[in-house]
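HOLO CASE FILE
Compound: magnesium ion
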Amino acid sequence: MKTYPLFISAVLLSVSTVVVFAQSIGDAPSDAVVLFDGTADSLANNWRHARPKAKRKGDWIVEDGSMLRMRGAGHIETVAQFGDCQLHIEWSHTKQSSKEGQKRGNSGVFFPGGIEIQVLDNYNNPTYPDGFAGAVYGVMPPAANALRAPGQWQSYDIIYRRPIVRDGVVLDQGSMTVLVNGVVVQDSTPLDGGGGHKERKALNHAYPDAGPLLLQDHGNPVHFRNIWCRPLRPRPAEK
Ligand code: MG
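Model generated. Tokens follow.
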């Protein structure tokens, strides 16, 4: 019987899924969950407020094909639940602002369990390193500042591998890969338990297997558009 090298048979066996790529780079491929396509229906059907109605003074609205928070709206999260995933999202801080640091174009993309990829207008606006745009907030600064000027659209492509902790034992600490405008700024960055503002969580901090994606209302006018997400295949640690 003829035998094949292991790597060849593994390739032949594993690539059984066909994904039709988008005609334009950045648009959703065929197997993506489209989370926002620029329409009010898309916002209404795919997102819900994270803040109870009684405590809300504003709303998220659609303006010129983008979604943004109004004053007092609070965070917004997806109806769909995701674990490991590839997320594409575009954002723009359209306002020229005299504010500095964390007060200029601040928002964030949160993954289940609370890990944030920072959204911030850092074009000619420095801040502390692990709070920069493209940072895994509180964990790792981005490798570079690849932002365009305010008023232009920025794209994030994020590959999230969640921490897998079972009974307090870390099976896989998870990672983030982030491209800002096509530039890699996080390259399989270990999550180290995750972080927050001047804090680190325990290395064996437990994360949900799935949950909503959340966009932060940090009080600044940040627009979002063209949001889609693809679940990723399981890792060996999950089996
Ligand atoms: Mg933020």
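CASE NOTES: The chain has a mean pLDDT of 92. The domain at 5-238 is CATH 2.60.120.560 (Jelly Rolls).
CLOSED: yes
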